[in-house]
Amino acid sequence: MKLVPVKTPSVAKRLFPSYLWDVKTDSNTLYLTFDDGPTPGVTEFVLETLATYGAKATFFCIGENVLKYPNIYQKILNHGHAVGNHTYNHLNAFNYDVEIYMQNVKKASGLINSKLFRPPYGKLKLPHGKQLKLEGYNIVMWDVLSFDWEASVSKEACLNNVISKAKKGSIIVFHDSLKAEKNMTFALPKLLNYFSEKDFTFEKIEI
């Protein structure tokens, strides 16, 4: 049983109103996001698939992966997508004090030119969130989780998680990682096709 729901409860959004959970819009727009890259092969698949549908997305990158694969990171930018900070090496805020956590975020910011930030695991203590906001970061969470990384979730269920829960303005989480590759590469093209046929567009997050 998953402790974290596919659809973010409205109470969570009310408790943390300064975090971005979805985008208020009347248009048929969805916001795809991809965490944990760049990853050789996987990120390129995402970029090629998005390009097929003229879709834009936001990539929350791990700093050490950007350092390892700068050419792939540059491809993300060249394709016109947005990037965000996902810490330097995927730190869980629950395990680190504010000073160490922020040092890690700033190390990543030396490689990732963005004030968009998503905490790994979606975990953020109040003092960490406060400090991030003080330093000008926009904290981006989500409205819908695909659970593409979860081995117990089938590729069909991964697709259905998004199709059944996404609505206008939803911020949707996928991962361009090896762990998520099987589910994500199945779900993403079908998701793009499904919503494109319903006249939805896919945009990057801009704050």
TrEMBL record:
Q: Does the keyword Repressor apply?
A: no
Q: One GO CC annotation, please? A: membrane
Enumerate the UniProt keywords alphabetically. Hydrolase, Metal-binding
GO MF annotations for this entry?
hydrolase activity, acting on carbon-nitrogen (but not peptide) bonds; metal ion binding
Record domain NodB homology: where? 28-203
PROSITE patterns this protein is in?
NODB
SUPFAM superfamilies for this protein: Glycoside hydrolase/deacetylase (SSF88713)
Q: Which GO terms describe its biological process?
A: carbohydrate metabolic process
Q: Which domain of life is it from?
A: Bacteria
Q: Which PANTHER family does its entry note?
A: CHITIN DEACETYLASE 1-RELATED, GLYCOSYL TRANSFERASE-RELATED
Q: Give the protein name, as stated in the record.
A: Polysaccharide deacetylase family protein
Q: Which organism is it from?
A: Paucihalobacter ruber
Instruction: Supply the source organism's classification.
Output: Bacteria, Pseudomonadati, Bacteroidota, Flavobacteriia, Flavobacteriales
